[in-house]
Automatic annotation (TrEMBL):
The keyword Cell membrane applies. It comes from the Bacteria. NCBIfam families: EIIB_glc, PTS-IIBC-alpha. It is a multi-pass membrane protein. Residues 1-414 form the PTS EIIC type-1 domain. This is Alpha-glucoside-specific phosphotransferase enzyme IIB component. PROSITE patterns: PTS_EIIB_TYPE_1, PTS_EIIB_TYPE_1_CYS, PTS_EIIC_TYPE_1.
Length: 518
């Protein structure tokens, strides 16, 4: 079950990685419409018309988020022919919503649904007025469709029926399942929506406590890979606000930018998106502490390693490369990191900070500071001061604990705890021939270390990690072997393994997939 959940978490990254680019375009277009910055941005001008077109274009991903997730998940979940799985899932998802729309059109009042456009609980999916099942509906339908695809896509049919093989067979088998799911949804989802509305009220009413607990759980669950299921339903699902906090912020950012009222009053749910505070300011302090505590002869090497990992965390919000440098050798430091990150987010919320701060500095700037800076600049100055104060706290506390307990962080301990430089990796590649690796590639080396391609039962990835399930765990090489071939570290749990690679993991996974099929 844990493997399945982690696989879903990895699949979530496929559509999520579309958001930063769209968000940057959105922030720029909102800024271009700001008359305080551009006095010529008057209603009816060519400037406003072009900027509005850019604004609408940047909203395309966010306004169709459920559809994007429905067609994005099969890319990672399908065992083969993922492109065909995407097509089948698109057809299935549209069918599911058409059936719901048809049922509500005739029996909506009996089911307690007022089937009228604009009614709360309804949404438009591909031109279909349907129940707003949001992210949950997309995940369930995509999962069912991919399950049918994995089971029936390669099924051999008699020659006379061969035209129905492959994707047509998947769609045919999926059709009655979609009809059944639509019927079940019409009977159950209105009650579920009522419960979600109550949960939204609780989360918003929880205020600072809700911000602290949510941020803490989002951090502390990272080692398990289950943190996606902490933030996913809040950021991209209806748990905190209809449509998810990210979409709500994006779609209303122009209103927030023109309203001088405190952001925590305009959008209190945005406090749950302050998780990026720990990523930007916390990881900066951690990186400084790792460098400061390295042995003098290793400082140059550690600077090269930590700088890249820190910049990744600061700019994009992907923290695993730096967090995994100390997670396994000092779990208590990671727990402290979760506590400090939650406390920092909570204090920022006390001072009126709210918004889309759940990733890194790029989104901080383009989805918050630039478009809203003219009216909320004072709040953002306070936010930065809070963040820098915690950077200092992180540095002092981490440095003191590393030295006091002689924790073998990079540059201090054994090779097992060490991150390797690019030169180390190239050297390892040159010596691969003597260790039995087929060629010099990292993907090939990983396959060899996992016991060969026949030992790999399942191969997926998330933003920075390869997730592998093997037939015989005893054939898998020691962690040091993978570090020598460019991995940051490795997580072992029975027959399930996670190799922390970094942001190049999609390319490594794709090359490994090709090699295992050869």
């Amino acid at each position: 079950m844990k493997d399945m959940i982690q696989r879903f978490g990895a699949a979530m990254f496929v559509p999520v990685l579309l958001f930063p680019a769209a968000g940057m375009l959105l922030g720029l277009s909102v800024m271009l419409l700001n008359q305080d910055l551009f006095p010529w941005a008057v209603e009816g001008s060519a400037w406003v018309k072009v900027s509005t077109i850019l604004l609408q274009a940047s909203l395309a991903v966010f306004k169709n988020m459920a559809l994007v997730f429905a067609v994005g998940l099969p890319i990672a979940l399908a065992k083969s022919a993922s492109g065909r799985a995407v097509l089948a899932t698109l057809v299935s998802y549209i069918t599911f919503n058409y059936v719901i729309g048809g049922i509500l059109q005739f029996w909506g009042p009996e089911l307690g649904v007022n089937y009228v456009e604009g009614e709360r609980g309804l949404t438009d999916v591909g031109g279909i007025l349907t129940l707003d099942t949001n992210l949950l509906g997309a995940i369930v339908i995509a999962s069912l469709s991919v399950w049918v695809h994995n089971r029936f896509f390669d099924k051999k049919l008699p020659n006379w029926a061969a035209v129905f093989g492959g994707t047509p067979l998947v769609v045919i088998v999926s059709f009655p399942i979609m009809v059944l799911m639509a019927i079940i949804t019409c009977f159950t989802w209105p009650s579920i929506q009522h419960g979600i509305n109550n949960l939204q009220t609780f989360l918003v009413g929880a205020g600072s406590f809700g911000v602290w607990m949510f941020t803490f759980l989002e951090r502390i669950m990272i080692p398990t890979g289950l943190h996606h299921f902490v933030y996913g339903p809040v950021f991209y699902g209806p748990v905190a606000v209809d449509g998810g906090t990210v979409a709500h912020w994006i779609q209303n950012i122009q209103n927030f930018a023109s309203n001088p009222a405190p952001l925590t009053e305009q959008f209190p749910q945005g406090g749950l998106m302050l998780t990026g505070m720990g990523k930007v300011f916390g990881c900066t302090g951690i990186a400084m502490a790792l460098y400061a505590t390295a042995k003098p002869e290793n400082k140059k090497m550690v600077l090269g390693l930590v700088l890249g990992a820190a910049l990744t965390a600061i700019l994009t919000g992907i923290t695993e490369p730096i967090e995994f440098t100390f997670l396994f050798i000092a779990p208590a430091l990671f727990a402290l990191h979760a506590v400090l990150a939650a406390t920092m987010a909570t204090i920022a919320y006390w001072f009126g900070v709210s918004g889309n701060f759940q990733t890194g500095l790029i989104d901080f700037i383009f989805q918050n500071w630039l478009p809203l800076g003219s009216l909320h600049g004072d709040t953002y100055i306070v936010q930065v001061l809070i963040g820098l104060s915690f950077t200092a706290i992180y540095f002092v506390v981490f440095r003191a604990l590393i030295l006091k307990f002689d924790i073998p962080t990079p540059g201090r301990g054994s090779a097992e705890a060490k991150l390797y430089t690019k030169a180390d990796y190239k050297g390892a590649q040159q010596s691969d021939s003597s260790s039995g690796v087929i060629d010099g590639g990292q993907a090939s080396a990983f396959i060899e270390g996992l016991g060969g391609k026949d030992n790999i039962a399942l191969l997926t990835n998330c933003a920075t990690r390869l997730r592998i399930k093997v037939h015989e765990p005893e054939k898998v090489a020691e962690t040091q072997y993978f570090q020598e071939h460019g991995a940051v570290n490795m997580v072992r749990n029975g027959d399930s393994f996670q190799i922390i690679v970094g942001l190049t993991v999609p390319q490594v996974r794709e090359e490994m997939t090709q090699l295992t099929r050869a």
